[in-house]
# Entry
Amino acid sequence: MVKMECKLCHKEVGEKRFKPHLKKYHIDFFENENAIIVFTIKNRLCLTDSDIENIKNDYKTESIKSITEKYKLPYRSTEELLRASGIKIKSISDSLLLKSVREKVDNTNILKYGFKNVSQNGEIKNKKKETFLEHYGVDNIFKTEKFKKELNEMMLYRYGQLRIGNPEKTSENWYNRTQEERDEIIQKTINTKLQFTDEKKLEIIEKYKQTISEWSEEKRDEIYKKVSDYQKNKWNLLSKEEKNLLMKRLHNGNKSKLEERVQQILNEWSISYIRQFSFNKLYLYDFFFVKSNIILEVNGDFWHGNPMFYDKNDIVKLPGNKITLAKDIWKKDLKKRKSAEKKGYKIVYIWEYEIKKLNDEELEFLMHKRINDI
# Structure
């Protein structure tokens, strides 16, 4: 029988009798039952107070399984220790939201199936389709109105609301709000995106591009039409004032701030330039240097489909009911460039992502280098 030394009376007690021993002889030393459990596990596993604090802190960002591997502890004892310490045990769903767990799951899926999402594996995808066809008559369960209805009923019963991804719920939530509430939501969304690191933005973009690249031509056409129809309906539901406000924000907001930073540097250089220059009334160019044949264009990543973030067949959802592909935006920009080059102009490009990641000195250096290298 494994024996443990009681740190309170220095007697050796059998492992199974340790907790009863504490209750019988040292009950006044503990505040409650949980304190006895923590003390028992601490002695049994030879943990220090510092170890327990580290385990509790690690559990904020890790799963119990990760902690047991890290500290070489039994799973059940670790769970019992956390629970007795007043920490709520995460459900499987909660654990899957942790970055450390997601990375492990992703790595396992890549190793076994070749994809982070097992549903992207051709064999798994076909099996799911066959199962759906056999049981529901469709290759995707969300294509059945019966399933969507049952899912909504279940959400209402359990949580008192429709699922977040439900179009009816989304429309109801948005269009029943006041303009002030909508503006607040938009601002919160903007603030959230502004907090994204460059790594987070690239991660989102890469995930999006990976998804798009795996679509068949039929799937791409189907999604293209759905997105187009959705955007048209959404645009048509807006009032005239909302449409004008949205267009104003999109056209004059972010890009003008980017141009202002560039303009400030040009002013410091004491260069004569024309802003919003045109030589043929067909195109407007951001900056034209009067004493040379150089045009400087400040390109927004979204409006010009930055090739760093968009593949040629990626869908770009423009305001209103306009849906286009990145390659179509590139064709228009190429025509604009060739139009200027035919007249003897040379064009320098600065991209939004470059401006945002550089401080003023670094941006000035980049502009100077691009202009000199042309």
